[in-house]
Amino acid sequence: MIEITNLTKSYDGQVVIKNCNAKIQDGSINGLVGENGAGKSTLLRLIAGVLKADSGSILLDGEEIFENPNAKSKIFFLADEPYFGKNAHIRDLTMLYSIFFDGFTAQEFKKNLIRYHVDIDKPLNSFSKGMRRKAYLAAALASHADIILIDEAFDGLDPYSRNEFKKDLIELIDKNPKTTVVIASHSLRELGDICDSYSLVDNGQISDDFVEAKNLHKVHLAFSDEGPADLSALKPLMVKRDGHFLVIVTDETEVRIRAFFSQYKPLMLDIVPLTVEEAFIYNKEREML
Amino acid sequence: MSKKYFRYLMKSFWPIATVYITLFAISLIAIPFVIDLFCILLFRIRAIGFSSYMLAMGPSCIFLSGLLPLLMHTRYYSKNRSDVILSMPMNRRQAFITEGLFGLALITTLLVFGYAIGCGLCNALGNGYSTLGTFEADLLDLPLLYLACLITFLSSTFAVSVANSGFQAVVMILIVNALPAFLYSLVGGSFTSFSNLFSMFSGESPNWLSQSEVFERALMFVVSDSANPESLKMFGNAMIAFLCQFLFWGGMVVLAFFEFQKIKSENLGTVIPQRFGVVNSLTLMYMLAFALMTQLAIADLSNSYLYAYEFILFAFAYFLISVFYFVSIFIVRRKAKFRKDDWIRFAIAITAGIVVGVAMFGITRAVNPSPDNYYYY
């Protein structure tokens, strides 16, 4: 388990992570979401031991990670734009990771690369952004590290590769129930497909309850006529009308929602959970109101 | 030390190192030959000897040592690079020690290689150690050179490790590149200061003076014999030498400032390796001028034509080394994009070097038109 306690990190006096606390359980895929510049990458770098925290601690199974080779040997960190030298080849990645990670298997790496249609004979700088990303993700999957940290996992990937990678991650967790994956991404739909839990990094704080505990509801309705014209009583965050169909997002309670619409006798009233992307967007909108 | 990191450095760096060592070897063989040719054509004497060989090898080794951290693709040059290396299972101290030891191994290889080539070259030409004293002097210069290279390498590595930005990193590299070269020049002087020390301890009077000794003696003269016009002249000349070194340092700072005003706004990860060749060549050109001025001051000071002769060799060696660096970096970084203004500045620097060199040569010939007075190594 990764345990973050009272973590603070600042750059040139600007506080990026502020007195944060969080726990990441073993055997799970965790999504790290937040706006640009919120501190997601900084948090991953802190967990990976690349950066030193100003104060607080990050423990992996009770051990401090920073400057601790033993703890770091269990962590594979894939940054958003890792730099491997101008003329680095796939064989250089293989060499680096097989030297440092005992569990890294060159054979599996190669197998992943072929499956992702990555040309193993060309230098990395001749690849497109997405192709490079696929090569790095293939390495992450072949690392067999206990903790896999991936920044901007889906950046530049085509839909097919996204799907393949998601399947591979789920398979990885199935095969190795102790493996923990933390993914920072803006592709919330993709995260929604695979993550067991989410953490929101916002204003230097981490909250892990933004999806469930914010009482946001998405309501699908159908009416025989056009339905209610005035929805202000529900303080909707989103309203979408399409003929006799209506979709709204509100933070009112389920009881209040049902009570409000019952007078209009809807043909259908369905309260569905929000996707991660919707939860993220509407929470933000509500904050800005 | 991290054994894994050492293995990684060995495996990943040796292909580049092989290219560099090959180019280094070519330059070590070629530079004395070119100097020799230069001297045969102009002075009608032969120059190849161990001293002139060391003259070519010393600055070359020092600057190569300063470049090693860049070539090693160490972890510091960009955030993107540090993400990879610093996330590996080792701590920073282990990484730093490993890089230091790796550099030590590489510099040792280079110097042993260079020294072996030099010995072979001089002996093959039947023009090697004319006296035991010369041999001792050169041999004793080697640890000094080794130390200078090591300091350059470690300080370059350290400088970039503590730098917060590319601007800081490269300025610090430049300074730490220059520092050991400066010290080597100051302490080593005419490459015979150790021999002088040897002579002094053995009761003989030293033949030549290094710059630091000149300065020290000049001060002693002034304190003990201020009425003597010769001592004042000596002091004045020592001041010129000292001023030259200050000019050198000031020039380095100005050079670094203008060079990196451009770089700092650009992409750090790709720009520095591409532009570093130009920067280093300009630095070397500046060092050429510095060396000429200092040697001129000493030549006048010691009233010995040895120095007048030597500074031409010294200047020419620097000129060749800077060309070598420029070409080799261009070869290693095949995709380096030199802009038009880089070429222009490089051309100006080379032209300036040639003009200064020719002017100095003219002065030397005017002072001493007879080639017979030149010291033969």
Features:
heterodimer; A: Rossmann fold; 6-stranded mixed beta sheet; 4-stranded antiparallel beta sheet; 14 strands; globular; B: 377 residues; mainly alpha; 0% strand; elongated; disordered C terminus
Structural features, described:
The complex is a heterodimer of chains A (289) and B (377). With 289 residues, chain A is an alpha/beta fold. Chain A has 2 domains: 2-207, P-loop containing nucleotide triphosphate hydrolases (Rossmann fold, 3-Layer(aba) Sandwich); 217-273. Helices cover 33% and strands 27% of the residues of chain A. Chain A has a 6-stranded mixed sheet, sandwiched between helices. A 4-stranded antiparallel sheet of chain A has the order 2-1-4-5, covered by helices on one side. Chain A has a 4-stranded antiparallel sheet with strand order 12-13-11-14, with helices on one face. In chain A, a hairpin with a 2-residue loop joins strand 4 and strand 5. Chain B has 377 residues and is an all-alpha fold. Chain B has helices spanning 3-43, 50-71, 79-85, 92-124, 132-162, 166-188, 193-201, 211-224, 229-263, 268-302, 305-332, 340-367. The chains are: A alpha/beta (289), B mainly alpha (377). At the A-B interface, helix 2 and helix 3 of A face helix 1, helix 3, helix 4 and helix 10 of B.
How are the SSEs placed, and which strands pair?
The complex is a heterodimer of chains A (289) and B (377).
Chain A: E1 2-11, E2 14-24, E3 29-33, H1 40-48, E4 55-60, E5 63-64, H2 69-72, E6 75-78, H3 90-100, H4 106-115, H5 129-143, E7 147-151, H6 159-175, E8 180-184, H7 188-194, E9 197-202, E10 205-207, E11 217-222, E12 238-242, E13 245-250, H8 254-262, E14 268-272, H9 276-288
Helix pairs in contact in A: 3-5, 4-5
Chain B: H1 3-43, H2 50-71, H3 79-85, H4 92-124, H5 132-162, H6 166-188, H7 193-201, H8 211-224, H9 229-263, H10 268-302, H11 305-332, H12 340-367
Summed up, the helix count of chain B is 12
Poorly predicted regions of chain A: none
**CATH C-level name of the largest domain in chain A:** Alpha Beta
Instruction: Write down the secondary-structure element order of chain A.
Output: EEEHEEHEHHHEHEHEEEEEHEH
- What spatial order of strands do you see in the largest sheet of chain A? 6-7-8-3-9-10
Q: Low-confidence parts of chain B, pLDDT < 50 over ≥5 residues? A: 73-77, 128-137, 186-212, 259-282, 292-308, 331-336, 367-377
**What's the name of the CATH homologous superfamily of the largest domain in chain A?**
P-loop containing nucleotide triphosphate hydrolases
